[in-house]
Write a structure and sequence with these properties.
Layout (H helix, E strand, L loop, with lengths): L14 H13 L6 E4 L17 H23 L3 E6 L30 H23 L4 E6 L14 H10 L7
Parallel strand pairs: 1-2, 2-3
Helix pairs in contact: 1-2, 2-3
Family: Belongs to the short-chain dehydrogenases/reductases (SDR) family.
Keywords: NADP, Oxidoreductase
Pfam family, one: adh_short
Length: 180
């Protein structure tokens, strides 16, 4: 009942917006005990952001990564604090390595010719988990924990709105999945 809530605008498809958000938040000089990185797009057609990166990768992962990096000092000062990365079980159905086992950066922000929406989503969610694990390793000694979570199968949202096939699949699968 004593909580003070204030909405702030943030566009993860713009690294300038992420930077502006972080600067504005820092200027308020308030603690940050929990940061939940939950925004995502799914099944979106290929397009580039104003930063010339594939939009699914930037919105689902890179924007969150940049935000956490910019607010890392605030999180450490606010200890105990935590970061929650909302990922997906879909991360299991992809890889971000080439055939020789090395990280392939071209898979993260693919060209239009190499783009498949489902793979872009899966890769971005794998990046979320890898980032969360490394963030926890680096910041837990400073009182900041990081966890990645799967929100549950087919929780109702409009994330599948970009293509009717995804909407149909989500609708057909819903009766056979657990729900909150």
């Amino acid at each position: 009942h004593k909580a003070k809530v204030e909405a702030m605008t943030l566009d993860l498809a713009s690294l300038q917006s992420v930077q502006h958000f972080a600067e504005t938040f820092k200027s308020k000089n308030v603690p940050l005990h929990i940061l939940i990185c939950n925004a995502a797009v799914f099944g979106a057609p290929w397009c580039l952001t104003e930063d010339d990166l594939e939009s699914t990768f930037q919105v689902n992962h890179l924007g969150h990564f940049y935000l956490v990096q910019l607010l890392q000092d605030v999180l450490c000062r606010s200890s105990p604090a935590r970061v929650v990365m909302v990922s997906s079980e879909s991360h299991r159905f992809t890889d971000i390595k080439d055939s020789s086992g090395k990280l392939d950066f071209s898979l993260l922000s693919p060209s239009k010719k190499e783009y498949w929406a489902m793979l872009a989503y899966n890769r971005s969610k794998l990046c979320n988990i890898l980032f969360s694990n490394e963030l926890n390793r680096r910041l837990s000694p400073h009182g900041v924990t990081s966890n990645s979570v799967h929100p549950g199968n087919m929780i109702y949202s409009s994330i599948h709105r970009n293509w009717w096939v995804y909407t149909l699949l989500f609708t057909l699968a819903r009766p056979f999945t657990k729900s909150m």
